[in-house]
Design goal:
Number of helices: 11
Largest sheet: 6 strands, antiparallel
Structural class: alpha+beta
CATH class of the largest domain: Alpha Beta
Order of helices and strands: EEEEHHHEEEEHEEHHHEHHEEEEEEHH
Distance between the termini: 39 Å
CATH topology of the largest domain: Phosphatase 2c, domain 1
Number of strands: 17
CATH architecture of the largest domain: 4-Layer Sandwich
Strand content: 25-35%
């Protein structure tokens, strides 16, 4: 179902308090959506899709300043709904639920990317057919639930967040010019856009769409947020977003997020909040969360080695699994924050100032977790790699929730960074290059980060 608010009316419209059993998903799900047209808009170009019968949720934001943005958003979500409902998608989901291994997981992610491509093709065809709609486009974020996971696809600068008990993670990275420069290591993570950051990737603006796809483990009490930039751009950072996302019911949270954005915002604002409820499908323990083999691989990292499994899982609450193809560059900045990685499998090259090659268990950019910009060129993927990505702010939030765990993790990080530094000094490397935007991204204490 779509959320159909009065598109030309002022004020927020909310659909809230819905609880549903979702097919092929192990938990009951509660969800709400809230929309506001904004103070300076005569039309509402956001479209929210809620289809619990397909385990599917999406937000599209028709691109402001482009003709027929609201048409592009509607076409995109219509195509997503049709593509997930078709026989191929349902068969792939059934296969994953029956046998959730790496191959069927990759099939789910590949299917989501194909769904995004279909949405792009649909918008492009309509723009070619109707000259009045040439140049129209839309952002698009999709969440597809299966077993105990959320499969996420993303294009543009709307966002998906995951709120856990001890951290709120920004799962997606804006496909915008400034974020691209940060990911390439050309700008520090805290550089802000002066005015609106130019979108480089969205549905409908080019023949080829570069959609991101990832998946995350879910547990009872987790919340997912899909929101347009009219929400996240108007809030005072991640701490305010985290506070509002955790408020009361899903309806309370959605209304609080859009209401707060509306106090400052002139743009359309849309927020879908999804809460993971009670588990009603029982699974063997080995089917839950990170598999035993991946936990063992992660446990080889210097930060987690010999840590009891409950503490390891607590530390990894800030981690998101990603997969990078051979030839890809591994960014030091994601979602405007420094990041570190634990290698689950695959090979990375040109790691660190000595250009080492590393594999399973390696900890890449450990200095990021203490707010320090590392030296050396960005690593590249030599063989398709699965990585656990940890943003520094998310890691700090997990540590704030458990001071004893924080002390142990920071001790291990300090010891590992010191060992790496000694090896570098012994090799008489030349002095490291200055950090881009050094003034605004200087090293900070973990407890005083902005």
């Amino acid at each position: 179902m779509y959320h159909e608010s009065a598109r030309s009316a002022r004020g927020a419209a909310t659909l809230g308090g819905v609880t549903s059993i979702v097919p092929r998903f192990d938990f009951r799900v509660g969800f709400s959506v809230c929309e506001d047209i904004g103070r300076a808009r005569s039309t509402h170009e956001d479209v929210a899709l809620l289809e619990p019968g397909l385990a599917l949720f999406a937000v599209a934001d028709g691109m402001g300043g482009h003709p027929a943005g609201e048409v592009a958003a509607r076409l995109a979500v219509d195509e997503v709904k049709a593509a997930i409902a078709d026989e191929t998608s349902q068969r792939i989901s059934d296969q994953y639920c029956a046998r959730p291994d790496l191959a069927t997981r990759r099939n789910m992610l590949a299917r989501l990317k194909r769904v995004m491509e279909r949405a792009n093709e649909k918008v492009r065809r309509e723009a070619e057919r109707d000259p009045a709609r040439r140049g129209m486009g839309t952002t698009l974020d999709v969440v597809w639930l299966a077993r105990e996971h959320a499969f996420v696809a993303h294009a543009g600068d709307s966002r998906v967040y995951l709120a856990r008990s001890n951290a709120v993670l920004q799962l997606t990275q804006d496909h915008a010019q400034l974020e691209s420069l940060k990911a390439d290591g050309k700008l520090g993570p805290r550089r802000r856009a002066l005015g609106h950051d130019r979108l480089l990737n969205a549905i409908g603006i080019a023949d080829v769409i570069a959609a991101d796809a990832l998946f995350v483990d879910l547990a009872r009490g987790d919340r997912l947020l899909l929101c347009s930039d009219g929400v996240h751009d108007q809030l005072d950072g991640e701490s305010e977003l985290a506070h509002l996302l955790r408020l009361g019911s899903t309806e309370d949270a959605a209304h609080a997020l859009v209401g707060r954005a509306g106090q400052k915002g002139r743009d359309n604002a849309t927020a879908i909040v999804i809460e993971i409820g009670d588990r009603f499908v029982k699974r063997p323990d080995e089917d839950r969360g990170l598999g035993a083999a991946d936990l063992q691989r992660a446990g080889q990292s210097p930060m987690l080695s010999d840590l009891p499994q409950p503490l390891m899982l607590e530390a990894l609450a800030a981690a998101v699994e990603i997969e990078l193809e051979a030839g890809a560059t591994v960014p030091r900045v994601v979602a405007s924050d420094l990041v570190a990685y634990i290698v689950l499998d695959g090979i990375l090259s040109d790691v660190g100032s000595k250009g080492r090659q590393v594999g399973t268990g390696a900890l890449v950019f450990p200095e990021s977790l203490v707010g320090v910009w590392g030296e050396g060129a960005l690593p590249t993927v030599s063989r398709t790699a699965r990585l656990l990505r940890v943003r520094a702010d998310d890691f700090e939030e997990v540590c704030d929730a458990d001071p004893a765990l924080a002390a142990e993790l920071y001790r291990r990080l300090a010891r590992h960074i010191a060992r790496v530094s000694r090896r570098t000094d012994a090799a008489s490397d030349p002095p490291p290059a200055a950090e881009p935007d050094q003034q605004e991204a200087a090293p900070q204490s973990p407890k005083t980060r902005s």
